[in-house]
Amino acid sequence: MATPAQSQPDPSQVAADVLSLRKALAPDIRDYRADAHRGPYLVVLSGLPGTGKSYFANSLGRRLSFLTVGSDRMRKTLVPQPRYKRSEHIRVFAACHRLIEELLEEEYRVIFDATNLTEGFRRPVYELSARAGSPYCVVGFTAPGSLVRERLRRRSDGLFPDDYSDADWRVYGRLRPGQEPIQHPHIRVDSSADIAPAVDQVLRMVKTACPRQGP
Q1: pTM of the predicted model, to two decimals?
Q2: In a domain, 81, yes or no
């Protein structure tokens, strides 16, 4: 699979797609609370399907307001019946990356919920964070295969109606050999255990990096 850094769609397509994604996120943006800690911050999630990324994002969002840019949700906004082709991946991630950069420039806190399995996919996220002048942290996820398989089975059975992912056990097996170690300092989460300490750690990092008090 080509990484976003290797190929990009037409800039006008990216701009149009970002507008579509902003419309999809409009209710979240309206509900966003600045809380006491202001300033941009990016939380980058990385892990195979079924390892608990979205659950972690929801848990974090219940503690402090974030805008979550989830690649599965964004994909279905742009491509209601996705085919998961190379050109589609490039289009979706180009739009997600540009949207995240804009949101950080506007001083929102953002969670990027995507597999982000290789350095080729993670590097553009680090770079856009630097351009936006935003601190960030990376959270890498694992879970035992038996637990992942059960989670993906339940997803396929429609037990998670708010889940936008189509990934099943076959997709997990296809992606797993291509996963690369995270080279940056990061928080490691085994989602078969209590994730609360990792959520607390991210919150401490955000509040340390964004200490400015609201009016």
Answers
A1: 0.92
A2: yes
